[in-house]
Amino acid sequence: MRLLKKTGGIPLVGELGLRGIQHKSLENAILKPYGIILVTGPTGSGKTTTLYSILSRLNKPNVNILTLEDPVEYQLSGINQVQINPQAGLTFATGLRAFLRQDPNIILVGEIRDKETTQLAIQAALTGHLVFSTLHTNDAATAIPRLLDLGAEPFLVASVLNASVAQRIARRICDHCKEVYTPTPEVQENIRHVLGDFLPKKYKDGAPIQLTKGKGCTECGNSGYLGRIAIFEVIEITNSINKMIVQHKTAKEIEEQAKQEGLIIMKQDGYLKALDGIVTIEEVLRVAEV
């Protein structure tokens, strides 16, 4: 059973958990007039909420936004939402083909899962549309070889892909009962090793790392957690990564290049949020340990 919170509205892009360079990279990608933006992650990792949040941000009276979903999870005013119905012949591919005749500015395709949908999504981006979609991959870099597996030509992927985003959802620490503690030396060493250059300045001189956890109270049902936040990995497709896509480089090589250009991987983003007292280190390891 899938339970969706229909009240409380869609969170703003800034409320999802995107910060700093990640937020800037995604903003750059969604403000381009055309191209493809992919959001990846397993089922239940908040991909749909992120996409709806971005669409709400781009939703203006003069922008024609069409979505093709399976199923439509939230109703968004001012956006034309269509639910696929394979029995009636309305699949992602047939719906996308019909959409292109309606001259939309922005198209959301619920999921790219076959060769035909892949090629139509690329075709839509090449003809001046901004296309959002999801893929089931574990990290942002793997989305690129996955598109090639689905029959996309490398030079076309290189010319239309704006960004690849991977995400997971972690439970937030309850603000009502959070307390600071000093973790074991092994955990501190692990944090220093994983974060590397991203380690906050105050810990660089060897100062002990402080983490936060929830004690448990009536507000959070004695769990120590209240609410959820996403941890992200955002690869902005630069010229150097475009060249690597055309050369059929592996996901690992693409990720290494992105790291040189400032990529914060998902685990690092989680650790930074743990240092800021937003999530526990255990939550980060639970959802982002790959």
Question: Would you kindly provide a written description of the structure presented here, covering whatever features stand out?
Answer:
The protein has 290 residues and is an alpha/beta fold. 37% of the residues lie in helices and 20% in strands. It is built from twelve helices and nine strands. It has helices spanning 20-30, 47-58, 92-99, 115-126, 143-149, 154-160, 185-195, 201-204, 239-246, 251-260, 266-275, 281-288, and strands at 35-40, 65-69, 80-83, 106-109, 130-135, 161-173, 178-181, 211-214, 225-236. Strands 3-2-4-5-1-6-9 form a seven-stranded mixed beta sheet, with helices on both faces. Strands 7-8 form a two-stranded antiparallel sheet. Strand 4 (106-109), helix 4 and strand 5 form a beta-alpha-beta unit. The two termini are 26 Å apart.
Query: What strand line-up does the widest sheet have?
Result: 3-2-4-5-1-6-9
Structural class: alpha/beta
Helical fraction: 25-40%
Outline the low-pLDDT stretches.
none
Morphology: globular
Question: Count the helices. How many?
Answer: 12
Number of strands: 9
Measured on Cα atoms, how large is the radius of gyration?
20 Å
* Oligomer class: single chain
Average pLDDT taken over every residue: 94
Précis, in short:
The chain has 290 residues and is α/β, with parallel strands linked by helices. It has helices at residues 20-30, 47-58, 92-99, 115-126, 143-149, 154-160, 185-195, 201-204, 239-246, 251-260, 266-275, 281-288, and strands at 35-40, 65-69, 80-83, 106-109, 130-135, 161-173, 178-181, 211-214, 225-236.
